[in-house]
């Protein structure tokens, strides 16, 4: 993984998460802004999938478990769409909070993926 891209992903995930949680607790239903922030997060995760495929081919293999990394990555990539589907089906303030919690979960998972890729010894 690339450190600066990981930091961008974590920053966007935390910002989107806090935005959605605050909007939901303020009584806002899912809107273009909240769903758009989650969509941006999903776009970054798709880019991360491409980077994770290319990185070992160009000499940047993970130092930890490749299986564990991919389980984290696929799970993280599935969280935002699932949260958005829930938000669009329920359309309540709590579904906005759920999108925020999903984004904050992605932030933690992304940082863990970086640790698996760079720090652990196989």
Structural description of this entry:
With 122 residues, this protein is mostly helical. It has one domain. It has 4 helices and no strands. It has helices spanning 3-25, 32-54, 66-90, 93-118. The radius of gyration is 15 Å and the shape is elongated. The model has no long low-confidence stretch (mean pLDDT 93).
- Elements, N to C (H/E): HHHH
Rg over CA atoms: 15 Å
- Mean pLDDT level: 93
Indicate the proportion of strand residues.
under 5%
Query: Which structural class fits the helix and strand makeup?
Result: mainly alpha
Number of strands: 0
Total of domains: 1
* Spans of at least 5 consecutive residues with low confidence: none
- Helical coverage, percent range: over 70%
The general outline is: elongated
Count of runs of 4 or more consecutive helical residues: 4
Cα-to-Cα separation, first versus last residue: 16 Å
Q: Main sheet?
A: none
Short description:
With 122 residues, this protein is mostly helical.
């Amino acid at each position: 993984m690339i450190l600066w891209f990981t930091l961008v992903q974590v920053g966007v995930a935390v910002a989107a998460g806090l935005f959605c949680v605050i909007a939901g607790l303020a009584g806002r239903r899912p809107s273009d802004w909240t769903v758009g922030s989650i969509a941006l997060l999903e776009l970054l995760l798709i880019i991360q999938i491409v980077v994770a495929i290319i990185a070992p081919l160009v000499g940047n293999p993970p130092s930890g478990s490749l299986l564990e990394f991919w389980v984290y990555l696929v799970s993280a990539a599935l969280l935002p769409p699932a949260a958005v589907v829930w938000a669009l089906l329920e359309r309540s303030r709590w579904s906005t909070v759920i999108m925020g919690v999903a984004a904050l979960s992605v932030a933690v998972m992304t940082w863990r993926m970086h640790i698996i890729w760079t720090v652990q010894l196989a």
